[in-house]
Specification:
Elements: H1 2-20, E1 28-33, E2 42-45, E3 57-59, E4 62-64, E5 71-74, E6 82-90, E7 100-104, E8 111-115, E9 123-129, E10 155-158, E11 164-172, E12 175-182, E13 187-189, E14 193-194, E15 203-207, E16 212-221, E17 234-236, E18 239-247, E19 250-258, E20 268-277
Antiparallel strand pairs: 1-16, 2-5, 3-4, 4-16, 5-15, 6-11, 6-16, 7-8, 7-15, 8-9, 9-10, 11-12, 12-13, 12-14, 17-18, 18-19, 19-20
Length: about 280
């Protein structure tokens, strides 16, 4: 029975790995800023046709906006395949166009626009479209707007409160997508838009409302992962560590323990205490 159970567990794990995709090196965190050390990693700017200077401020554990269309732009440039994750929130207010613009500076035609619930329209929305123009003040300068958009790059889902979550802009193989995950783990994502080879590009993040804020920004390199996969196998003293295994859209960490007591081959047991959701 013991041998049969271990075999079934091993077969199950192999099946999961095959479904998830070919084993590859996990994505790598290459940039992480929670603004606890200020804005040293960023250039701060504003719409120069509207304001003389930005008024961004670190308040508690967040970067707060006090006037619309201020922005931060990374001092560092990023290349290859990567994903930008921005932890965002809104305390009050209800902008019509969008709450945030997240863009790769070298791809202004397909910047990411994100909006929490607008008034009685109880939807959170993601959209790819033109980046804002920070040198003019007309309605044509706001870039992509979610309100009344008929773009095929618009995706929406029912809002939840509080209005916080993570917006992710992913660049992979010459294409970009924008996604949002709320506090319940529910996710929406735009279709991919082709932007070509961006070379080394900086990241720009803007907010429209003085109630918007950002808690942290992370960048992950995706160059060593297969599309849609984060399966990883690390052999450690015959134990098998899986730091990142994608199952059903969620990432898990788990370990298989080598069991030398079973004769006639190599057998492993699933360590139930090792299973962690790493999303």
């Amino acid at each position: 029975m013991k041998k049969s159970l271990s075999l079934r567990v091993l077969v199950l794990i192999i099946f999961i790995v095959l479904v998830a995709g070919t084993a590859a090196i996990a994505e790598t965190l290459i940039f992480n800023d929670d603004f606890s050390a200020g804005l040293g990693n960023w250039y701060a700017g504003c719409n120069t046709a509207m304001y003389a200077a930005p008024t961004l401020a670190i308040e508690g554990n967040k970067l707060a906006w006090h006037q619309g269309w201020d922005y931060i732009e990374s001092n560092q440039s990023f290349s290859g395949n990567f994903r930008v994750e921005v932890d965002v929130g809104r305390d009050a207010g209800s902008p019509q166009c969008k709450d945030f613009s997240i863009e790769l500076v070298n791809a202004p035609a397909f910047a990411g626009a994100f909006r929490f619930q607008y008034g009685t329209y109880r939807k959170d929305s993601v959209l790819l479209g033109q980046a804002p123009n920070y040198t003019c003040r007309s309605s044509n300068c706001t870039g992509a707007c979610i309100q009344n958009s008929t773009s095929p790059y618009l995706q929406e889902m029912d809002t939840v409160t509080p209005h916080i979550g993570t917006v992710s802009l992913t660049y992979r193989d010459g294409q970009v997508t924008l996604a949002f995950k709320n506090t319940l783990g529910q996710t929406i994502q735009t279709p991919a838009a082709a932007v070509g080879d961006l070379g080394a590009t900086k990241i720009r993040i803007a907010a429209v409302s003085n109630y918007d804020y950002v808690n942290a920004v992370r960048v992950y390199s995706l160059d060593n992962t297969a599309a849609g996969d984060c399966s990883t196998l690390n052999l450690n003293n015959l134990n098998i560590d899986m730091p990142c295994l994608m199952i059903g859209g969620h990432k898990y960490r788990l370990r298989l323990l080598y069991d030398p007591s079973i004769q006639g081959g190599y057998y492993w047991k699933l360590d139930l205490t090792s299973i962690q959701d790493v999303n």
